[in-house]
UniProtKB/TrEMBL annotation:
Signal peptide: 1-26
Upper classification of the organism: Bacteria, Pseudomonadati, Planctomycetota, Planctomycetia, Pirellulales
Keywords attached to this entry: Signal
Name of the protein: YTV protein
InterPro entries: YTV
Protein species of origin: Botrimarina mediterranea
Domain of life from the UniProt record: Bacteria
Length: 393
């Protein structure tokens, strides 16, 4: 029975050493002189801290001084003479005879009859008896029994289960990609800038017609010219990424449900029936017959004649002819030549050179030191229970 257990233990250790890398078969069993003592090898992971230095790009803004030439308008004033013709009015006055008719008023007094009838109201007062009914209130007091319900609070302690979540830490290995790149020089071409077209004197030139292929001469004169600066090449350092996969331990918390019994104060309302006497006032109306004297006014109309004579002024028009002297004014225009000084403002463009600050972005690499942990597997030998020697029993 002991030999069978020994053989089974040796086979198990041989399989473990065969499947574990970096472990030799010489480390299977370490027997002593008198009896055999077996050991068990276990894998244990340890982490070594290492430091690494990498470079990260840092961007700074640098200002450069450049000279810029621009066109500035300058206004000048010139004196000139303007010749123009003015029409001057000349007035002449003469007298002419004019005959006209005039309507003269003649007033006469006449009398008009405006007699009219006037209706006058005569008021007469008489009395009559009027019977009416009056409702008089009578108040009566009585008592009635009123039942009402009262809610009385009753406090009780009840145990209720409360479920809460507890977060337990769990460590796992996670692969992360770390950028271990470097800076690479890259050429950037900046296109030239164009200015607004301006009027410039062009000298005599000889060009070739692209259609016919014949030489032709361009006369000198003013032409619209657009200036263009040549493109510039700049060398910049660009970060070239180099992703590397690294095993990193990650500790995460896993939720677990825990149920606890919590005492809770519960208040419930108990209904109780009560009664009370309530006084009730009842108002009833009693009818009473009454009599009163009411004055009544009667209006009667009486017609009266009123005589009235009204004087009226009547105006009639009489025509009369008259003669008067009327001045007549004649205006004629006479042309005159005049000279007037005029100020004219002339605007011309003048070249002006200025110094401006142009921002430029510069990238430099700054060293950064960081610490990372590297996992390593170590084989640890642990003793198993002692096995007796087969020779000594």
């Amino acid at each position: 029975m002991v030999d069978k257990a020994m053989n089974l233990l040796r086979i198990t250790l041989a399989v473990i050493f065969a499947t574990t890398p970096g472990v030799s078969s010489a480390q299977e069993v370490s027997p002593c002189a008198t009896c055999t003592q077996a050991y068990r090898l276990e894998c244990q992971t340890i982490y070594e801290e290492r430091q690494a230095t990498c470079y990260r790009p840092v961007t700074e803004t640098v200002y450069e001084t450049r000279k810029v030439t621009r066109q500035v308008p300058v206004t000048e004033t010139k004196q000139m003479e303007r010749h123009f013709t003015v029409m001057r009015p000349v007035t002449e006055t003469s007298m002419r005879e004019e005959r006209y008719c005039v309507q003269r008023q003649v007033f006469e007094t006449q009398y008009r009859d405006e007699s009219y009838d006037q209706v006058r109201n005569v008021v007469e007062t008489s009395y009559r008896d009027e019977c009416f009914t009056v409702q008089r209130p009578v108040v009566e007091t009585s008592e009635r029994t009123e039942f009402f319900t009262v809610q009385r609070p009753v406090c009780e302690t009840v145990m209720r289960p409360v479920t809460r979540t507890v977060m337990s830490p769990v460590t796992t290995m996670q692969q992360q990609v770390v950028d271990q790149g470097a800076l690479v020089n890259q050429v950037t071409v900046t296109p030239g800038s164009r200015s607004w077209p301006r009027l410039t004197w062009m000298s005599r030139q000889t060009t070739v017609d692209p259609v016919t292929g014949m030489a032709q001469t361009v006369r000198p004169g003013l032409a619209w010219v657009q200036n263009e600066t040549p493109p510039q090449q700049q060398v910049q350092q660009v970060w070239k990424p180099n992703p590397v996969v690294v095993q990193t331990p990650v500790t995460s918390f896993m939720p677990q449900q825990v149920v606890e019994q919590v005492p809770t104060q519960v208040t419930r309302m108990v209904a109780e029936q009560h009664s009370r006497k309530v006084p009730v006032q009842t108002v009833r109306m009693v009818s009473e017959q009454q009599t009163r004297r009411v004055p009544v006014q009667t209006t009667r109309q009486v017609v009266e004649r009123i005589e009235r004579k009204v004087p009226v002024q009547v105006c009639r028009m009489v025509t009369e002819q008259k003669v008067r002297q009327v001045p007549v004014t004649t205006c004629r225009m006479v042309a005159e030549k005049r000279i007037e000084p005029v100020e004219i403002k002339v605007c011309r463009l003048v070249d002006q050179t200025e110094e401006i600050q142009v921002p430029r972005t510069v990238t430099r690499m700054e060293p950064v030191t960081y610490t990372y942990r590297v996992p390593r597997t170590v084989m640890v030998r642990k003793p198993v229970e002692e096995v007796g020697c087969p020779t000594c029993g």
